């Protein structure tokens, strides 16, 4: 917006300078006609006035021509100065226009870089969001697996308790079996002794 306002101001300045030059050139055009009319009026006034020598009339004409030439020369000099100033001004405007064009180019490049950065930021934000979603899913999966592990650990602990109970029961059963085995062995020994003693009494009675 600032570059547009400055460009409008430069255009207005250029148009103003060109208009001033055109007005100055147009102001020169009627000068010969004004001079001729002044000469005619002067000759007419001289004709109605008292007779004067032709030499004085010619001298007056020469003086008026010299004044007109000096006025025209001053006007031409002023126009040349205006043209020089306008040329310098136009040169400065051209330099400023070049600077403005460079600034516009730099601004466009900066805007393009900002657009690229915004696009990269949006892409990065999308990637971060995707990674965050993956992290949340991984946390949910880890929580689910943690529950499964806890359940498995509870099952293992229960199985260990059952295994301990079974080992205790087996130990008790083994002790009962050992005691019964000892009792059976004692009964067998008693039976063997009873048979031996019974055979001896039978032999003694036979004699």
Report on this model:
The chain is an all-alpha fold and 207 residues long. The chain contains 3 helices and no strands. The longest helix is centred in the middle third of the chain and has 153 residues. The radius of gyration is 66 Å and the shape is rod-shaped.
List the helices and strands and how they pair.
Layout: H1 2-28, H2 31-48, H3 54-206
Helix pairs in contact: 1-3, 2-3
Strand content: under 5%
List how many beta strands DSSP finds. Answer: 0
Helix content: over 70%
Question: Which residue ranges are poorly predicted, with pLDDT under 50 across at least 5 consecutive positions?
Answer: none
Silhouette: rod-shaped
Give, in order, the helices and strands.
HHH
| Helical run tally | 3
**N-to-C span:** 152 Å
- Backbone structural class: mainly alpha
Biggest sheet architecture? none
Average pLDDT over all residues = 76
Give the C-alpha Rg: 66 Å
Short description:
The chain is mainly alpha-helical and 207 residues long. The protein is built from 3 helices and no strands. The chain has a domain at 2-140.
Which tags fit this structure?
single chain, 207 residues, mainly alpha, rod-shaped
């Amino acid at each position: 917006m600032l570059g547009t306002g400055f460009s409008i101001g430069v255009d207005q300045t250029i148009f103003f300078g060109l208009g001033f030059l055109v007005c100055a050139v147009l102001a020169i055009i009627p000068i010969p006609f004004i001079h001729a009319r002044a000469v005619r009026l002067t000759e007419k006034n001289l004709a109605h006035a008292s007779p004067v020598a032709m030499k004085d009339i010619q001298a007056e004409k020469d003086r008026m021509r010299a004044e007109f030439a000096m006025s025209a020369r001053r006007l031409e000099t002023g126009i040349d100065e205006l043209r020089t100033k306008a040329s310098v001004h136009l040169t400065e405007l051209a330099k400023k226009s070049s600077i403005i064009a460079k600034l516009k180019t730099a601004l466009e490049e900066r805007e393009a870089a900002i657009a690229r950065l915004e696009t990269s930021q949006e892409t990065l934000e999308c990637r971060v969001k995707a990674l965050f979603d993956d992290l949340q899913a991984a946390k949910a999966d880890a929580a689910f697996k943690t529950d499964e592990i806890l359940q498995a650990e509870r099952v293992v602990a229960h199985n260990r308790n059952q295994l301990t109970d079974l080992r205790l029961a087996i130990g008790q059963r083994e002790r009962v079996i050992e005691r019964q085995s000892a009792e059976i062995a004692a009964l067998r020994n008693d039976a063997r002794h009873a048979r031996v003693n019974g055979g001896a009494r039978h032999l003694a009675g036979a004699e």
